[in-house]
Amino acid sequence: MLQIAVEKVCDVIVNSLALNATVEVGGDDFSQLPEISDDLEFAPPPQDKYLELRRVIDKFNEEERQNLVVLAWIGRGTFSLDEWEEAMEEAKNLSANHIPEYLVNMAQLGDYLEIGLSELGFSSEGFETGNR
Questions:
Q1: What gap in Å lies between CA 92 and CA 71, rounded to an integer?
Q2: pLDDT tens digits, one per residue of 86-119
Q3: How far apart are CA 122 and CA 126, in angstroms?
Q4: What residue spans define the domains of the chain?
Q5: pTM of the model
């Protein structure tokens, strides 16, 4: 079923979680947000972490990229594990060249991939901490 090494998925998870850790998400509680003023400075997006995640995904072949998409979709709940083949057909309709950008811009990608791996009976534990 899964046609990408778990280690490669874990590399994406680690890089995605690093990217997410540098981006503060306010969630639905807008009472905690600062008031907007003209002198309020916003930090630029973490370009280095974004580029690193993109670089990791760019190295994968088309089939590996499609598997990442399906794994993320399963983790997000778009498809169930029983719908793997249907999800793979959908992923094949995506341009392989656009998949890295699609994945890098997917909020909570690392979380979705972890959930997807878990659904398949795999764990990213140990890989995330560099214990390969």
A1: 13
A2: 999 999 999 989 999 999 999 899 999 999 999 9
A3: 11
A4: 45-126
A5: 0.78
